[in-house]
Write a structure and sequence with these properties.
Helix content of chain A: over 70%
Order of helices and strands of chain B: HHHHHHEEHHHHHHHH
Strand order of the largest sheet of chain B: 1-2
Strand order of the largest sheet of chain A: 1-2
Structural class of chain B: mainly alpha
Shape of chain B: globular
Largest sheet of chain B: 2 strands, antiparallel
Strand content of chain B: under 5%
Radius of gyration of chain A: 19 Å
Mean pLDDT of chain A: 85
Mean pLDDT of chain B: 86
Low-confidence stretches of chain A: none
Structural class of chain A: mainly alpha
Number of strands of chain B: 2
Largest sheet of chain A: 2 strands, antiparallel
Shape of chain A: globular
Number of helices of chain A: 11
Oligomer: heterodimer
Low-confidence stretches of chain B: none
Distance between the termini of chain B: 36 Å
Radius of gyration of chain B: 21 Å
Largest interface: A-B, 46 and 44 residues
C-alpha cells in the first residue's frame, strides 16, 4: 500500500517537477514567473488530442506534433509579448503573463469547446511489484520524466546552450559582455519551458481528463513545487515536485482528495513562512 | 484636491443619481448598473492594496465569496438586519484579509501573486465542500434588504444603497490616501527598504492594506449576495477568473487612481454583456486579456491617465494662445 502510494506519488510528483522546472527556467533567466504556462500546456495537449481524434494520427506522432507546436508557441510568446517589456517592473510582466493566460484559455475554449474529453494514456494495464498494484502508465511516466530531466540537466551542465542559460541566469549584463546572445537565451528558455509544460500536460491529461480548465490546479501544484524546492536553483523544483507528489498522494488517501489545492496552498504558505528560499534555494541579495 | 475636481465629482454623482430613473432602464440593464458599482467597490479596494501599497492580489474573488456568504449566513440563519450584516461582513472579511496579510508580510511581487492565487483556489474548494455554510450545489437564497419596513425589492431602489456606499467608500479612500497612512503605503510601494529606513513600520502597513482591501471587498460581497438572490460556491464571481478580472479592472482603468478603478469596473462589467450576443463564448475573456496586455505595453498608467494626458494636451493648446496674449500685453 505504501509502496504503491510512493510510486504513484513519484509519478505525479515528477510531472509537477517538469512543469515547475519550466517555470524556474524562465524565472531564473529573465525574472518572469509565467502564469500562462499551464494554459499553454493545455493548448498543446489539445493539439495532440485533435490530431489523434480528427486526423487519425498515432499517439507518438501526435505527441511530437504537440511538442513542436509548444515550442513555436513558447517562441512567439517570448518574442512578441515578453520582449517588448523586458525591462518593465515585475508587476507589468506579471500582468502580461496573466493576460496571456486569459487569451490562451479563451482561444482554447473557442477552438476546442468546453467539453471534457478522455485523453489516452501511453500504455494500459497494471504491474504487480512486491504486492503493490502499479499502473504501467504511471511507471512509464516516471521513467520518461527521469529521462527528460537527465537530458535537461546534462544540457545545462555541458551543452553550450545550457552554459549560456546558466550564465544569463547568473548575470545577464556580464553574459552579454562575454558574447552570449542573451536574447536568444531568453527564446530558448521559453521554448524549452513550453515543451516541458506540454509534456507534463499530456501525461496529466489521462488522469484528470482533458478540458479547458484542467491546468489551473496543475499550475498551482507547479508553483507549490517550485516554492517548496526553491525558485533559485534547477534542482529545487525537482525536489519540491517529488515531495509534493508523495505528500499529496498520502494526504488524499487519508484526508480528502477534494482539498488537494487547499493542501498545496497550505504548503506554499508554510514554506514561504519558514524558509522563503525553499528547501535547496539560496538567498539572493536585494537592491534598493 | 482642488475645487474643479470637487465639482466634477459632484456632477458625476448627480448624473449617477438621476440618470437611472429618468432613463427608466429595463431590469437587466439596471442589474448590470448595480453590478458595475459593486465591482467598482472591489476595484477601489484592490487598488488601495495594489496601486497605493504595491501589493498584488490574485485572490479577491475569494474575499468577495467570504463577504457574500458571511452576509447570507448572518441574515438568513442569525436573522441579523441587512445593514448590520453588511458592516459585519466587511469587518469579518477584513479580518480574513489581515490573516492572509500575515504570511504575505514576507512576500513580494511574484511570490505574493502565487500565495494569493493559492488562497483564491483554496477558498473556492473549501466553500464547495462546506455545504452546511454555503448550501453547496443546491445554493442558498439571500433575502432582499429591508430598512424600517421598506423592502428594497427593485434593482433601482437597491442601486441607491450601492451608490451611497460607493460614495462613502470613495470618500474614505480619499481620506486614507491623503493622510499619514496613505503616504506610508506609497512610500512602501516605491521602496520597501527605503520606507523601513525612514522608520515606517512596513509589516503593520502591509497587514493594514490587506485588511482594508478585504474590508471593501467584503462590503461588496454582501451587496453582491443580496443583489443576486441566489448563489452557489461555483458562482463565477468567486472564481480565480473573476479575481483576474478585478486585476484587469484596475490595470485598464489605471493603477493608483480612484476614478480609474470605477471606469475599469464599468468597462469590465459591460464587455461580457456586449460580447454575449456573439457566437464565440469566450470572446470577452480574449478581449480582456488582449486589452490588459495592450494597456501594459502601450499605456502603462491606464485609461484614467491617458484621459488626463489628453486633457492636458488640450489645456496646453489653449494655454499657448493665452501665453501669446500675455506676451502681447507685456510688450
Amino acid at each position: 500500500m505504501l509502496l504503491q502510494q510512493l510510486i504513484s506519488g513519484f509519478a505525479t510528483g515528477g510531472l509537477y517537477a517538469l512543469a515547475a522546472l519550466g517555470l524556474v527556467l524562465i524565472y531564473k533567466t529573465s525574472d518572469v514567473v509565467n502564469f500562462a504556462q499551464g494554459e499553454m500546456a493545455m493548448f498543446s495537449t489539445f493539439i495532440a488530442y485533435t490530431t489523434m481524434t480528427s486526423y487519425g494520427m498515432s499517439y507518438w506522432e501526435a505527441f511530437i506534433l504537440a511538442l513542436l507546436f509548444a515550442s513555436v508557441l513558447g517562441f512567439i510568446v517570448e518574442r512578441f509579448f515578453i520582449r517588448p517589456i523586458q525591462n518593465a517592473p515585475v508587476l507589468s510582466l506579471l500582468i502580461v503573463t496573466l493576460g496571456l493566460m486569459m487569451i490562451v484559455n479563451g482561444i482554447a475554449g473557442w477552438a476546442f469547446g468546453f467539453e471534457t474529453h478522455s485523453f489516452p494514456a501511453i500504455v494500459g494495464g497494471e504491474l504487480k511489484i512486491f504486492g503493490a498494484v502499479i499502473s504501467k502508465s504511471n511507471l512509464l511516466t516516471l521513467v520518461i520524466t527521469v529521462f527528460i530531466m537527465g537530458i535537461l540537466f546534462y544540457m545545462l551542465k555541458y551543452a553550450l546552450a545550457g552554459i549560456a542559460i546558466r550564465a544569463t541566469s547568473e548575470n545577464p549584463t556580464i553574459a552579454r559582455l562575454m558574447g552570449i546572445a542573451v536574447n536568444h537565451v531568453y527564446s530558448i528558455t521559453w521554448v524549452v519551458s513550453s515543451i516541458l509544460g506540454a509534456i507534463a500536460g499530456m501525461f496529466i491529461a489521462p488522469t484528470t481528463f482533458l478540458d479547458v480548465n484542467m491546468m489551473s490546479s496543475v499550475l498551482l501544484k507547479a508553483f507549490t513545487a517550485a516554492v517548496l524546492g526553491g525558485f533559485t536553483t534547477f534542482v529545487g523544483p525537482v525536489v519540491g515536485g517529488l515531495i509534493l507528489g508523495v505528500l499529496e498522494n498520502i494526504a488524499s488517501g487519508y484526508i480528502s482528495a477534494q482539498l488537494s489545492s487547499t493542501f498545496a496552498f497550505a504548503l506554499i504558505v508554510i514554506m514561504l513562512w519558514i524558509k522563503p528560499t525553499g528547501l535547496v534555494g539560496q538567498k539572493v541579495g536585494k537592491k534598493v | 484636491m482642488n475645487a474643479k475636481k470637487y465639482i466634477s465629482w459632484i456632477v458625476l454623482i448627480l448624473i449617477a443619481t438621476l440618470i437611472p430613473p429618468i432613463l427608466n432602464l429595463p431590469g437587466s440593464l439596471q442589474y448590470l448598473l448595480d453590478l458595475s458599482l459593486i465591482y467598482a467597490i472591489v476595484a477601489i479596494g484592490l487598488n488601495l492594496l495594489m496601486g497605493y501599497a504595491g501589493q498584488i492580489s490574485l485572490g479577491h474573488g475569494a474575499f468577495l465569496a467570504v463577504g457574500a456568504y458571511t452576509s447570507a449566513y448572518l441574515t438568513l440563519t442569525l436573522h441579523v438586519p441587512f445593514f448590520i450584516a453588511l458592516i459585519l461582513s466587511g469587518l469579518i472579511t477584513g479580518i480574513v484579509g489581515i490573516l492572509l496579510g500575515i504570511p504575505a508580510l514576507k512576500l513580494e511581487g511574484n511570490y505574493l501573486a502565487i500565495a494569493t492565487l493559492g488562497f483564491g483556489v483554496a477558498v473556492t474548494q473549501i466553500f464547495a465542500i462546506w455545504t452546511s455554510f454555503t448550501g453547496g450545489f443546491s445554493g442558498i437564497k439571500p433575502l432582499k434588504p429591508e430598512l424600517f419596513g421598506f423592502k428594497f425589492n427593485s434593482y433601482l431602489s437597491y442601486y441607491y444603497i450601492i451608490l451611497i456606499l460607493t460614495i462613502v467608500l470613495v470618500i474614505l479612500t480619499w481620506n486614507i490616501i491623503r493622510t499619514k497612512v496613505g503616504r506610508s503605503l506609497m512610500a512602501m510601494r516605491d521602496s520597501e527598504i527605503a520606507a523601513k529606513a525612514m522608520g515606517i513600520n512596513v509589516s503593520y502597513y502591509k497587514t493594514l492594506a490587506f485588511g482594508l482591501s478585504a474590508f471593501y471587498t467584503g462590503i461588496a460581497g454582501s451587496l453582491y449576495a443580496h443583489l443576486l438572490g441566489f448563489m452557489t460556491p461555483y458562482d463565477y464571481a468567486f472564481s480565480i477568473g473573476m479575481s483576474l478580472n478585478f486585476l484587469a479592472m484596475i490595470v485598464i482603468g489605471g493603477i493608483g487612481t480612484i476614478s480609474g478603478s470605477i471606469i475599469g469596473a464599468i468597462i469590465m462589467t459591460w464587455i461580457p454583456q456586449i460580447t454575449s450576443n456573439l457566437p464565440i463564448k469566450s470572446l470577452s475573456q480574449i478581449i480582456t486579456g488582449a486589452i490588459i496586455i495592450a494597456v501594459v505595453i502601450f499605456y502603462p498608467n491606464g485609461i484614467a491617465y491617458a484621459g488626463a494626458r489628453l486633457k492636458d494636451k488640450f489645456e496646453r493648446l489653449f494655454a499657448k494662445h493665452q501665453e501669446k496674449i500675455v506676451v502681447k500685453i507685456e510688450k
